[in-house]
Amino acid sequence: MRPTRTSPVRAWSLAGRRGFSLPELVVVLGVLTILVGLLLPSVRQTWHQGRLTSLLGEIQQQAALVEMYGNEHNDLYPFAGFDTVGDCARKWYEALVREGMLDDRAAERASVFQLSLCMVYDARRMEPGNTPDRNAWDEPPVPVYRRQTRLPASKGMLYWLYTYEKRSPWPHTWCCYPDSSPGPVAMADGSALIGRWMDFLPDGELVVDNPSGVGYPVITTWYGVAGRDR
Question: What pTM, to 2 d.p., does this model score?
Answer without folding.
Answer: 0.77
